[in-house]
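Now for our specimen.

. . .
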Amino acid sequence: MSLSPDYIRTSLQSLYGESVTSAEIRGWCAMNDANYQTVTNKLTQYKVGRGKWNLEVTKETVQDLEVSYSAPAAMPAVQQNLIPEKDDTFVKFGNFGPIKKIIQSRLFYPTFITGLSGNGKTFSVEQACAQLGRELIRVNITIETDEDDLIGGFRLVNGETVWHNGPVIEALERGAVLLLDEIDLASNKILCLQSVLEGKGVFLKKIGKFVKPSEGFQIFATANTKGKGSDDGRFIGTNVLNEAFLERFPVTFEQAYPTPAQEIKILESVSRDLKVVAPDFCKRLVDWADIIRKTFYDGGIEEIISTRRLVHILRAFRIFGDKAMAIEVCVNRFDDETKQAFLELYDKVDADFQMPVDEQVES
């Protein structure tokens, strides 16, 4: 009796599943009084390796997969300019000098930068890269960030499945600076970067390719905590990071807010960019923020005014042309008691300030 390929495949699948070996085929041949060579000749299209057959995958399917594996990224990053633009309002302060030296060295030296919100952690790395002409790839980390987001995966492009490099692979291949922003929001899925943090590259198991770091590849991570979570609840969502992960960062910089003198320079620089002439306003804002921060550090209040928020106030002043309104709308994010305390404090710092009163909004 002549055995058809479909019958052989179906019969083998019912006994052994979709993947079979030469030993299993020999056993089937013995049970069905069939010739081993004849049977394997009829299964040629399902052969995936020496002594191995996948009864669901034909050679044509394997070839299609190989084409997908070797296909280019959905959007070749080489066509993009990843060097940040220089910001004319930037003023050097804090850890900018050491950060710039690390980037300038082009040595692989993973660096962790921690500090309160809005004090220039990310901005410092960005502007150091801009000044040095280095490519920067910034990844904003969340608890949902996983290996597919970081390393890459298959994407559907024009009806075809192609491999698309994630930001980590792009940075590795380009020898760029990789910035993992808000790293303390990550889950344990971030551990897929262990080998990358050792400077050893990464094996892309989905396509069977090893990616080595190019010369100049560097990693920086920023966080509001030191990877131990937030006990006071100020930074909800931050997580306790794996100790082995944190240990792969040789150095940690603690970023503080700029000194009053530095902060005045920052606000004056922003004012010039906004074409706002308000040197007295800038100084009083800095004095106000300095008093609030000292009180915060002493445990007197639970909120703080960041450098970023002072810049927000200047921008609001440029838009509305009213100091009281600019400050009020920018401190509305705080609870009513804190907001009122901040406004009353500014009233004491600035003799020309008039406390805002509720008015009908005009169009």
User: Anything to note?
Assistant: Confidence is low (pLDDT under 50) at residues 65-75. The longest strand covers residues 152-157. DSSP finds 15 helices and twelve strands in the chain. The chain has three domains: 5-57, 77-254, 260-349.
